[in-house]
Amino acid sequence: MSRLPAFVFAVLGASLAMAADSSTECQGTECQDETSLVQVKASIKRSADDAQSKSPAHFPDVSLFFKNKQDLLAGFKDSMAFEDAGEFAESAGCDSPGCPCIGDIVDQWKTESGKGYTCCKKLGKADLLKQPLCGLCIRNAADALAGEKGSGKNDCDASRFKECADVYCQAQSGSASDALLKKIAKHCVPVTPTATGMLGIVANNPEKRNLETFLEGEKATIAAIANGKRGHNITGTASSSSLAVSVTKATKAGFNTESGPWGGDAQLAGLLAKQKTDPSAKKYIDSVIFFKDPKEAHHEDILALVAVMKATLPAANYAFDAKKAKDVLALYATA
Question: Starting at the edge strand that comes first in sequence, how are the strands of the sheet with 285-291 ordered?
Fold first, then answer.
């Protein structure tokens, strides 16, 4: 086991009792959120780098390394997820049947094997009710959006997305007509943001390390874009936008969607569709950088978002890799 998990275990051991009462992390049959599994990777990495130069006896208060107890446990799970899938599942209390396919989903994050999606496609309704990481489209096709209710990010109940999923998931075919976009705009838009001209940043779990590397290299540019006079603030899915802000210190819009499998991809698509099809709508999102991995368990949701992006944004305003993402950022130099 690497020193990062060892460090987190040391801190966890000293704080687990304190955190137990207030933590909403996966227990029993509750399920995992993309945000908690891959919590702002940059802050965890920097904390670990600093801690590795100290002996365990010199570990200061947990708050120096993590903003709160939830981040502590998220850091623990994040480090474990890339060490051993079985050990991660056991430690998180998410081993089958509590959270079906969790081992294969974590394996996908480690090796990009595609096992998570393959497993999700084989699940029946009873199991899909417990596994939001399979995404809206797979769950909706099995009438399994109304999963178990929990608190906060562990809530497996996505039934409020039913009307959205019915139309959004049609775009996974690879195209989105104007008629379909209007339906997506009607049913998938979350709370309408007040910010306009936002830069959307999204990365699937296996691509978050690549996104972090890209952000590190472009942090001055992104901070200037977000913090400049015109304030093209950062948005995106929950963990990706938080990662972007953590690395670049850019201003985050007072709006982000939920994590992708929880409906965040559909919500982002809803805003893009609305600004494309509604003449009275403001231009909420100028551009989107999406480091995608179609092998993810919520593969079908990803395909739908890609189709909506291509149907609603000029080709110069979206990117799926670092090279094109630099070109997208360059657009803001004259904006």
Answer: 234-236, 198-203, 285-291, 318-319
